[in-house]
Amino acid sequence: MRLSLTRNRLLTAVAATLVFAAQGALAEDNETQAAWRIFVADHTQPVVRAIDFSSGEELGRYDLKGYAALTASASGQTVFATQSDRDVVHVIKTGIAFSDHGEHRDLGVSDVARLPVTFEGKRPVHVVPHDDHAILFYDRDGKAEIIDEAALLEGKAEVRTVDATKPHHGVAVTLGRYVLVSVPNTEIKTKPDELAPRVGLRVVDEKGEQLGDIAQCTDLHGEATSARLVAFGCKEGVLVARPGGIDGPNLEMLPYPADFPKAYTGTLLGGKAMQFFLGNYGEDKVVLIDPDNEQPFRLIELPTRRVDFRLDPATPRNAYILTEDGNLHVLDVIKGEIVRKGKVTEPYSKDGHWRDPRPRLAVADGQIAITDPRHSLVRVIDAETLKETRTIAIEGQPFSIVAVGGSGASH
Q1: Largest CB tally within 10 Å, which of 150, 187, 287, 405?
Q2: What does pTM read for this prediction?
Q3: Rounded alpha-carbon distances, angstroms, from residue 384 to 95, 272, 325, 336, 339
Q4: Could you give the 3-state DSSP secondary structure of residue 349?
């Protein structure tokens, strides 16, 4: 798969226009500023730390009930700390907010704070950020909650509940006024401590009523949004949802090519400035997916197993892949090739429990922040040279990490 040359030229022209417009607008302002913050959860301690990325100063420490996985909202104004083992989700206000004024955007910076609203349910796992809301899925409740972010920031909870029919390790994603919900196998009996397997995806409307038939997607796992498309990983291939007409979204299965090795995608990332998806394919390969291409899949082999991977929102052709040998690889998503690599940590084996302490990646201000739990550090790597520029000491075993921020006008 290759993104078309025409599309590349269009993207380049659009980017150049946006940069020129932003430079012209900002020149008229008295001051511009940039602010980046990282949020780091500990592997063993129930705590999340907010850190100023530039100075390394700790801005806040928030005690939780259990180990937390972190997810930033689409706007970057909130971070969800999901504690699956303790059946609770806390929300942290990042203190970073942007307001769009067409030709430029303003940046507002305020204090970090844990919001007074918490969400409780049986085994919350997947948090899906989308536009002005986030969707929490509770595996053992068999339900999802759509949460309004504006209300959250005012200390209130405005929630719409979506029924998922039966407890399962599932996910829900909004697409316009519709919700895409994973479907469990309702015909088999499960033991009290077991969750039903996933068999497909269904579309529900604003009333919670199903539209059309269930789309097959065995062992559905992993989702991402790119442009107006939503993709889901399945054993058969990648299921893509497109906005439709009065009958709701259109669901299309992209089967894996016959000459691919036996594996499947269970984690997906979605491009922001370009429409594409990046997914794992087993443990030692990744796959680029262009749903509009005649041959939508392009497979990239890695030298060893993948530990974590991220897309660069500011440089959309770059993806960063950390492998267990401690090397960070830069994948050019347009070429479909690994273009450079650099050693950034000591080896971290993928053997053992899936949640053993291993590095995680975040991208901030042209740099990659990598947690190194063995050494109680966040390592800061230059995205161009792949050289370490500095470290941020973090007490304990820093593990899950997200970054929020950017630049804007300050009036």
Answers
A1: 287
A2: 0.90
A3: 29, 20, 20, 18, 11
A4: coil
